């Protein structure tokens, strides 16, 4: 039984339509603000219930506010996603055919890579095998900037990763499209791109970097949670949400 959607829910949804994606702290602040404005009850542990109520009304429109983790800092994010189109075609209003072809190729590179990244050189080289109108170097660079600005990709030191928004929104597509290649995190069971891999060849489980940080925190001898072999990788630090640190 879905509860009634009130003014506070509507205000929250409107803000999400503007933002597209927000981290958990931002969602909590927004939830509080909406409840205060419309004088309704608000409890921090009820945020997911509040969002479920909105989602029950969004379902007939094939929309959903979906939660997912940032592979960068391990924080939870909420994104308003379109579920009607499970294909990259959802981007056709903003990108030309050959631009989408290059985005697909970038995804191929990222999915098939060990570390969940594609370098700008690899992406530029992949334009050679384009079947639609080939993008020039400057056009490719411009496109990559747009994909970063539109929050489909992230860029650091010339290497591209899929953004949190992209992973949350495209997960069903990626799972269907790359069935054999897609990696799943042993800890949180979500798809994983930037992760550590067990070096035991008969095991080979994957764990997201932030999940590694949390799972092995405080353990002196890290062992694989599946095969119990020594975990040889450097254990990243657990990053705190930016409530105390600067943004
Ligand atoms: Zn994980
Ligand atoms: Zn293992």
UniProtKB/TrEMBL annotation:
GO CC terms: chromosome, telomeric region; nucleus; Smc5-Smc6 complex
Listed GO MF terms: ubiquitin protein ligase activity; zinc ion binding
Keywords carried by this UniProt record: Chromosome, DNA damage, DNA recombination, DNA repair, Metal-binding, Nucleus, Telomere, Transferase, Ubl conjugation pathway, Zinc, Zinc-finger
EC number: 2.3.2.27
Listed Pfam families: SMC_Nse1, zf-RING-like
Domain named Non-structural maintenance of chromosomes element 1 RING C4HC3-type: residues: 185-227
Domain of life, per lineage: Eukaryota
Principal subcellular localization: nucleus
Catalytic activity field: S-ubiquitinyl-[E2 ubiquitin-conjugating enzyme]-L-cysteine + [acceptor protein]-L-lysine = [E2 ubiquitin-conjugating enzyme]-L-cysteine + N(6)-ubiquitinyl-[acceptor protein]-L-lysine
Keyword Methyltransferase: no
Compartment(s) of residence: Chromosome, Telomere; Nucleus
GO biological process: double-strand break repair via homologous recombination
UniProt similarity note: Belongs to the NSE1 family.
Self-association and partners: Component of the Smc5-Smc6 complex.
Primary role: RING-type zinc finger-containing E3 ubiquitin ligase that assembles with melanoma antigen protein (MAGE) to catalyze the direct transfer of ubiquitin from E2 ubiquitin-conjugating enzyme to a specific substrate. Involved in maintenance of genome integrity, DNA damage response and DNA repair.
Protein known as: Non-structural maintenance of chromosomes element 1 homolog
Species this protein is from: Menidia menidia
